[in-house]
Amino acid sequence: MEYTIGQVAKQLGLSTPTLRYYEDEGLLSGVRRTEGGRRVYTESDLEALRVIECLKHTGLSIKEISDFVKMVSRGDESIPDRLELFRERRDQVKTQQAELAHMQEILVFKCWYYEKALELGSEAAVRALPNSKVPKRLREVRNYLGSFD
Amino acid sequence: MEYTIGQVAKQLGLSTPTLRYYEDEGLLSGVRRTEGGRRVYTESDLEALRVIECLKHTGLSIKEISDFVKMVSRGDESIPDRLELFRERRDQVKTQQAELAHMQEILVFKCWYYEKALELGSEAAVRALPNSKVPKRLREVRNYLGSFD
DNA sequence: ATACAAGTTAAAGTAAACTTTAAGTCAAGC
DNA sequence: GCTTGACTTAAAGTTTACTTTAACTTGTAT
Q: How many residue pairs bridge chain A and chain B with CB atoms within 8 Å of each other?
């Protein structure tokens, strides 16, 4: 199957200027053109774009992704470098996941806090609650945050 | 305990200009000053900054955080709004976690892929492997990504 | 008392990742 | 054959979140 820039944009949730921008920045090269100069995306271009989206979502900048693409075009010789890049990414995402889990704890505490405030009629009343009235798993977060809203 | 701007910066891993910038943007108000005009941060300022960091790390922009701070200063009346904000954040982080887990699968696949490529001497050799030679839990990702590097 | 590190302000500068604009070209439907 | 919507380019503009600069003041250590 082959696609126009508009169809690809829709599928990936990107805008058409963004797709052109990615090409300008070297994230995608060798996109075929029609006689009239319009881009024609193949299934394989879509696959490349999916990996690009993955790298983007795990925190790589456009520049770093373009460096990766350059590696790819160096062929098998760059396999060790690419392995290193993906290992780094994998480890970094693990860290990110731990951090996000911590943030989630804070948010869960905050939801409890404001539900209680709504129930009791004021923040002050929630702050005045003894730790024994706070769900066990939220106590640690409460200590970490202190008395702030 | 009370702290200078430099001490706070160190503790939170921010720069001193960033702390001043946050104040300018309304993320933190009422920071006390010495006679000579220097900022004095209290324990409670630190707690506020920890919540700000949490909101930032879960994807809120500076503007959105400043809107939250404005809510706080409206007092108990804004509790329902604040509850809604934290519920939204909590749900959004859950989505983010799912997405990150998906990205992690891709990265784990890529690490396997390049380890295998290193072992076999080329990418082509890995691509040529039948699905039966691919660890079970990685097969789905392999199909999703297709044949791209 | 004096040096100097750390603080102060306002304003300008930066980097990243797009988005918008302007001026046109292409191709599908009537 | 003509309109219209989707495409093309190059260049300028935008937003976000800081950072840097410059000129100055404060407070601590010798």
A: 130
**DSSP codes of every residue in B66-135:** HHHHHHHHTGGGGHHHHHHHHHHHHHHHHHHHHHHHHHHHHHHHHHHHHHHHHHHSSHHHHHHS-GGGS-
Candidates B90, B104, B118; nearest CB to A83: B118
Q: Which of residues 128-147 of A touch B (CB under 8 A)?
A: 144-147
Residue with tokens 């996941």: A97
- Crossing angle (nearest 10°) for helices A43-57 and B136-145: 120
Quick one: closest CA in A to B93, which residue? A104
Q: How far is the CA of B38 from the C1' of D27 (A)?
A: 10
Contact B41, B1 (CB under 8 A): no
Rounded-to-integer distance, Cα B149 and Cα B145, Å = 9
Q: How far apart are CA B144 and CA B135, in angstroms?
A: 15
In this structure, chain B runs to a length of 149
Interface of B with A in 65-84 (CB under 8 A): 72, 76, 79-80, 82-83
Q: Which two tokens stand for residue A26?
A: 């070297």
List, for residues B95-119, the tens digit of each pLDDT value: 999 999 999 999 999 999 999 999 9
- Both structure tokens of B13: 């891993």
Q: pTM of the predicted model, to two decimals?
A: 0.87
pLDDT digits (tens, 9 = 90+) for B59-107: 899 999 999 999 999 999 999 999 999 999 999 999 999 999 999 999 9
Phi, psi of A8 (to 5 degrees): -65, -45
**What residues form DSSP beta bridges with A42?**
A2
